Amino acid sequence: MRIRLLAAVVAASVVRTAFAAEWVVEAPYADRAELTRAAKYFQHLKVDRERGVFRVQANDLGIARLEAEGFGVDVDMAATAHLRSALARMQAARKPGPALAGADGGGGPPYDTIGGFACYRTVEGTYATMDDLAADHPGIVEIHGIGPSWRKEQDPAEGYDMRALRITNLATAAQDPDRPAMVVFGSIHAREYPPAEIATRFAEWLVHNYGSDPEATWLVDHNDFRLVLQANPDGRKLAEGNDSEPATWWRKNVDDIDGQCNFGDDSDGIDLNRNFPFHWNITHGIGSSGDTCDETFRGPLAQSEPETDNLVSYVAGTCNAAGECSGGVFADRRSGAMAPPSLPDDGGAAPDDTSGVFFDLHNAASLVLWSWGDTDAAAPNRDGLRRLGRRLAAYNQYHPQQADELYPTDGTTDDTFYGLLGVPSYTFETDDTPGFFFQECDGPDGFESLTVQKNIDALRYAARTLHAPYRLPGGPDVRDITVSDVAEGEGGWFVSVQASVDDTRYNQSNGSEPVFAISGAQAWIDGQPWQAAPGATALSASDGAFDETSEQVEGTIDLTGIAPGRHLLYVQGANARGGGTGTVGTPNAVFIEVPEIDDTIFENGFDLSPFL
Ligand SMILES: [Zn+2]
User: pLDDT tens, 500-514?
Assistant: First the structure.
């Protein structure tokens, strides 16, 4: 009854206050075609396959649209009440929230946080974090301005300069120009609070642990991280609820010219994640909407929005109609036309030595998604995309799937960067919790205990693959490396090393990835396994035989010729995939300290130097 009344209100196209309220609603669906019809208007449908229902947060206009499509819509009053209490709390706490300490617990400066949500930095808090990281760690951090937001383009006194945080060893970057890159976008959908914070915490993990944690150290020394922590700052500012006209449900950018909604300015704007140029609007209204009022309005043209243009230019550079790009962070390793006449496109697979990984972080549907999103055809690199996706999903425990598995989307970030460049590209939808986009900070469903660490762990795994993300996940991962104290032995100094080499870590909840027995492991000092480096030392299986999918390995490394001081000791394992010498996997590293060697001690058994 209530729904029918609302539909009548919508039909009469009355005032914006009619659209202010948001509801959590649920509707049964019969098949993929029905899901697709609903997804045209919404994103982040939460699909419960077992019950055959989807849930979505919708305003009254959205409910009316679902009804018009023939869905039987039920309001979930409990979930709606939970959401509204969260929003009320936010409104009540519209001032900046309590201070947030540095994410490593090191008590960094306090940063501005969203009212009522002390775990999520505001745009200003995020920008202040970037400023501090760059000021305090000039050897490994710099900030790139990538262009003005829509509002700033309209009025230079307002809006934001968009930023990427670059983290890499800057002193050695020039002599290593093809360093593998990782690009991460946070909160391109404005109201999704967790993604920007996850990206920020990952940045802090890299920077604060550089030089003290061996994994962070080798990752920063040999890779190039480009993190757009706030990918939609204008929209995010509205969604933070601190604005004079708070709009906590804001998803799109704030373009109220090309994105003007005649049903009320609560629904203005363009969905940036439908405005990306590769295959823009290729499903002709199925994977995005042409209606300005819809949450998935794709914009008047591909890449029409300054935010999209800034992000594409930074990551891919300049691209022509044939899909050939140059000048961006990633090299172009794939052919494939920008707008082919039909799907899938005519492009080929990226070579398996393609480096780098792209991530776009969203919430809240608990998914790891890979291309294609606009067709259920397999992407040319499907096997490699899926393999890494299932590895990542073993860390964050989200459901791994091709993005199109439930319903199509077009003009998205991940299809654009995979499609144009061939770089493996993923969307994470972080935890589906009662708070929806506004996940609570604390408690068992909270951001701090449930979400942060496992997603940082997933990003760390991805970072260990950056040299060859289509290949290395086919081999085992290395964990828990330990080394003994350096000890004197016959003829020199030695260190013994132990590690776990594990091929089993896949999320096997949606199809299964083959797992292979470990076939060997090697250790190197200084230099990653694929670089010219001192000879490797073969490690042996601690139980005497390489025959299981997870093995403890051990060995003794001769330090002859290694200069005194601290070094990185890398371990890489291999499995039996493909036969022969097998397939090598993701390495990891540990620090060792090589002492000054005093020959007098060696020769005489005790130190004579005080007597000489
Ligand atoms: Zn999103």
Answer: 999 999 999 999 999
